[in-house]
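Quick one: structure for this chain?
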Amino acid sequence: MILFLSAAAALICGYFTYAVVVEKIFGADALRTTPAISRRDNVDFIPLPTWRIFLIQFLNIAGLGPVFGAILGALYGPVALLWIVFGSIFAGGVHDYLAGMMSLREDGSSLVKIVEKYMGRRTKFAFLTLMIGFLLLLGAVFAMSPAHMLADLSGIDFIYWIIVVFGYYFLATLLPIDKIIGRFYPLFALLLIGVTLALLVVLFLSDTPFYPQLDFTNQHPEKLPIFPLMFVTIACGALSGFHATQSPLMARCLQNEKTGRLVFYGAMITEGLIALIWATLGIAFYQGSPALYQAIRAATPGGVVQAVSQSYLGPIGGTLAVLSVVLLSITSGDTAFRSARLTIGDYVLSKPTLTKRLIISALVLAGGIALSFFDLTTIWTYFGWSNQCLAAFSLWTASFYLSKMHKCPLITLLPATFMSAVCLTYIMYDKIGFGLSLTASSVIGSALALLAATAFLLAKHKKS
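Got it. Here's what it folds into:
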């Protein structure tokens, strides 16, 4: 219990300390006119109240990561909590804040345009390909997972639910942001926070030990290596490239730059708290990694969510908890497709008319539907790695941005280097990549990441 309380306190302290440092380095200015005002079109650029934007941002970035990812990460034992805490404060919060604030300063541009401006056209094309491919993968994952959970909950066939989910995605992708997303997503966010806190209260009131094996050794039943696998498994609860696609959506609705710390950094810290709770629930409910591992193998992380929720909250409360996770997934899936539509639209549309938005939305969703017929486990594997590649890419972009603005880039350079090492090591080691030994993969991945950081610092010193 003490470990959990300390970790939660550290996350909250990170928002009131390190987030202030990041905001000061960036130089948020309350007097600047934001794109929500200067480019208002009542579709994507619409001024919204800060509290509403915060809740939408939190729901958009969360997805299944702080629940499924945290449950899978809990297999490694309490060491997972360290990545959730330090990752959220020093990587995820910085990543999300700068992704949103760079968009704010660049007239509400998508991250791809920012990459082009600060890293060149060739880098832009590589990033655009990675980003669109990733968003389609994510949209497929966030359609299939809730469809499976709804099928298990209702007894109605999976195919029916996948049609319903994609039908909703089409509407949410196409309509103005204040019609569905701005109106209902804050309520969904409050539901998620409420049921998660209810689960935590029940855990506190029980006599169940939070962490039966309280040490930071690798407790994974298959002894999968913590580096790099844990840092890919736990994404949205600590650092996720998906967030870089979502922050610009809300940057188009902010009315004051000074609210960016709450909306972007604050939402990441809130997500970290959700991940912290679900990782703890997974370990405590099953009393360690072996039983949790068997439960995941038998019923997937979705089955674990259902078992924990119904055991702690009963049939009605458990159903609400499962529905909150379903909504969590669906609401991130639709904004993933919306972000893909906006990113493509930035390059092929001079004026975003309804007909053109309709065509792009249909094409984007067609790609997601095609992917939904593949095996979920296979898609999740590629999704996890590409997600963290996108995060590393976004942090490198922020480093170039800060450097060219004559601001300290170390707040992004350090996590960018670390995540580059993670992604490079992963693709060298995993079976979807080169399948090398862990030692060789770690040496190659870390060396390449350090080489990139050295080249960046030398270029910055030469320019100075």
